[in-house]
Amino acid sequence: MTPVRTRIALRCLPLVAALALATGAHAAETPRHGGHLEIINYYPTLNALTWDPADFVWKINNDAGHIYESLFAGDLDKAQSRGGKYNFEPDAWLATDAMRGELAESWEVKQDPLRVEITLRKGVMFPAKEGVMAARELTAEDVVYSFERANNSPRKVPGYFDHVDRAEATGPHSVTFHMNKFNAEWDYRFGYGYYAQIYPREVVEKGISDWRNINGSGPFRLTAYTQGNAARYERNADYWDTTTIGGESYKLPFIDSFTYRTVKDESTQLSLLRTGRVDIMEQIRWSAVDELKKSAPDLQWRRSLMHAGYLLALRNDAKPFDDVRVRRAMNMAVNKQEIVDALYQGNAQKLAFPLHPDYVGYYEPLENMPDSIRALFEYNPDEAKKLLAEAGYPKGFSFKAQVCACNTSHMELMPLLAAYYEQIGVKMEIVPMEYAAYFGAMNASTHTAAYMHQKGHSNPTTALRNSFTKGDPWNVSKWHNEDFEAGMAKVFLEQDETKRQEMMRELSRMALEDAAYVYLPTPYIYRAWWPWVKNYDGELRAGAVKPGPIYARIWIDQDLKKKMGY
Questions:
Q1: What ranges do the domains of the chain cover?
Q2: What's the pTM value of the predicted model, to 2 decimals?
Q3: Which CATH number describes the domain made up of 308-523?
């Protein structure tokens, strides 16, 4: 065992010196099985919200996507770190050439009648789970069962599977999805999306809501869970997949296990990373980065623009926010450039919603927008007061705004917004809430006149659809425009992606101009990991908030970790 004094000294060595102590560069980069990872994931303050995919809760893949697999997943061989062109950061968007079969071995879209024919991999196993099920092979019936259970769920997102007439097992390892119309998101919705998991009937019959019962074909198994503390995942010895590195094939996963830490206090999160008790931290605010780079100079880094809109949702279905003049005033009253410069010290962009800059071909930069939209991002309190007076509020008004107390960034933003609104005679009462109550209010549409919202993009079409379509729970503003919805209907039917991109840029302009929300700057965030974490470059998602395939391909250089004193 390395003496304490030696461990401390080694921790102070720069990385180059530490690497020199290893057994050689080639040995350091040779894949190895074994070891354990401690991870503070992208949602460090949130427990698992459900273990049942049919609950239609967005976070299911982050907690159970290591266990349950889907038909498709991200092709990590196309990652930038492996010579490809994709960063694998979007919430739930896979470009066509960045998607591979997970449980699907092959698939084909056919016409007359419109359908998707899928051939499943053979030999994919559900492992034995004591008291739940014996080991058995995954079949087409499991795919059909999982789809039908999602489609019949009372919690289903309205219209989500309306393009599918039925799923049919046409053989032990072949499935056909019969479609009544084309849907531009078909691959996302039942192939790799938030609610596309495939699981055995036996788990449902035993009780799928109990974490002790869940069982799937993925690279890991859930072996311990303590709400508010941690979830532990261990390798699935029956996992089917392999990866090729340096011309050699390796069985996955490499690591024996990993743990998700639920840590609500940001300073504790950073301390755990700084001292090497956490190997990977998936979301770090820009304000913590400089100090970490000084105190832990060996950390590896990635900077990326957050895939979530920061929005103050204004209920368009209630006064005073049913008047577009009021909503535009609420945007003009906020000095968004000052927030970028002063609060974020430049680590933010003013426009990254509803379409994200990573969506090449879809995104339109602010400078290309018409004057009526650019005006919403310019600070103009005098014009805001004028609009309020025209709308019948010359002396302003008061309103309540709910915010999740667990979101540090939002809690910092709210007093700034309140101060801006005071300058135009508007009083905002801030209502902090715990996450369960906050999320429940949104789902039940019982939220207050304003609601501080962090809205994930998912993918280009979903970013527009569920943020602005009537009846969707994620349309927190309750904005409704019949022309917009008619345009979205055409988008989903359009099979030519270039045409879809043009249509969606126009629809994005329509929603922005009507000021459905107060559009706030989107911050850059950082990811950090220690150099013994190999075959990883900060990739975040290989499907809808799904990191399982990424973790399965990480290996740990145990020698380097030891020689660095950890």
A1: 4-299+530-563, 308-523
A2: 0.84
A3: 3.10.105.10
